[in-house]
Amino acid sequence: xxxxxxxxxVASNMVRKLMMKGFVLGMALLAGLAAxxxxxxxxxEMKSASPESRPGETEEQHGxxxxxxxxxxxxxxxxxxxxxxxxxxxxxAFFRGQPTGSVVRFVQYKRFATPASPELTRTEYLTVRGVxxxxxxxxxxxxxxxxxxxxxxxxxxxxxxxxxxxxxMRKRAHSIEEVMRSWVKQxxxxxxxxxxxxxxxxxxxKVSILGANNDAVEIELDQDTHLPLQxxxxxxxxxxxxxxxDEEVYGDWRYFQGVATxxxxxxxxxxxxxxxxxxxxVRFNDPMSDDLWDRTKLLKK
Length: 301
Hints:
alpha+beta
């Protein structure tokens, strides 16, 4: 091989290397240009770029519109005007985010609040009868009235612990049903669109509802379906003189009699999982006897 041939081969290899370096550099520059907008996008820019926003719309108008879309997704008038609900399922307890091993089956009856009557709830807990008589039995029922809770068995009825009653009533007062039934109709209520976020790999719109006494509820709505994925509120813990945050996270939405219902619900306190509830059967607007709410009617032995 002559010296001139060797020179040509070396030169050719150098050209190929330079071309390859140029190609790699060009691809890196293109990738950088493509990634730069996403990296530079701040929370404020994401909020203003939300596909749900409309020109000239204030944050309050945006928030109210999102709540209206949520109600429509939940079933519209069918959701707003539901009278009763019947559900079956099971609930698992957690302590500091870890399962306790306690899983209880239940049957629940609920009569929703109206201008003439408060919300009433009856939850009956089922246990296994035994080997001789297979099946389930209802040993205990919890009856929740307008302002108190009672445990009913075949032995009698007693008032539930005050801390348990306070927790139940606090959650009822901050429920999505109560927010849309009462909060949004208050004269001085403030409703604000708080921007977007992520919840279980779903893009969500956040809406805050500030009611009386600076009490507030935040709801996260799926941007695609407008169904609520989370509801949270903060409250003052008088025992420890600090503030706690209660959350409910909803999943597996389905429709029954035109009403959207989450088939699973997870509750958190200050970020720690407290319980998980899974529903197996749901019905709405069944006629319910007044005896269900009469705590003097004891469970049969």
